[in-house]
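User: Some background: our group keeps a shared notebook of sequences we're curious about, and every so often someone picks one and asks for a predicted structure to add to the entry. Today it's my turn. The entry only has the sequence so far, pasted here. Could you supply the structure so I can complete it?
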Amino acid sequence: MTDDSVSDALTVRRAAATDLALIAPLFDAYRVFYGQASDLAGAHAFLSQRLESRESVIFLAQLGSVPAGFTQLYPAFTSTGLRRIWLLNDLYVAPEARRRGVSTALLEAARQHGLETGAARLVLTTDKENLPAQASYQAHGWQRDERYFTYELDL
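Assistant: Of course. Here's the predicted structure to add to the notebook entry:
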């Protein structure tokens, strides 16, 4: 991303399968950030499967025509609330696009999607060490859950 391209207007839109070439490198970088080996082909295939089977919703942020970040939402449900919830599973902003409002725009797109689909809430999990992400979420009204514990069972 050149200095000229990052000064271009920020746009966020729901991604389609035709956007895989733009999203896959961001998704691969996101995975590398979380300690996984780079696998661009695997990232492309994984996202293709999610989009083709309509198992996720992805929003793509661009600065001009340059991909700047993405967020991926997975559907879930609240049995007690009798409604859908959205799991904001992935959010990534390219290093050269940070501090330009990209995460704010992606979080707002996710929030709007939740409202438009009648969801009860959005939920997310982030690494305890990822303090910049935590600060961003809290600045945008997200509240850390102090009531419930999360348990995992690796299979």
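Suggested note for the entry: Residues 3-139 form a domain with the Aminopeptidase fold (CATH 3.40.630.30). Residues 9 and 56 are 26 Å apart (CA to CA).
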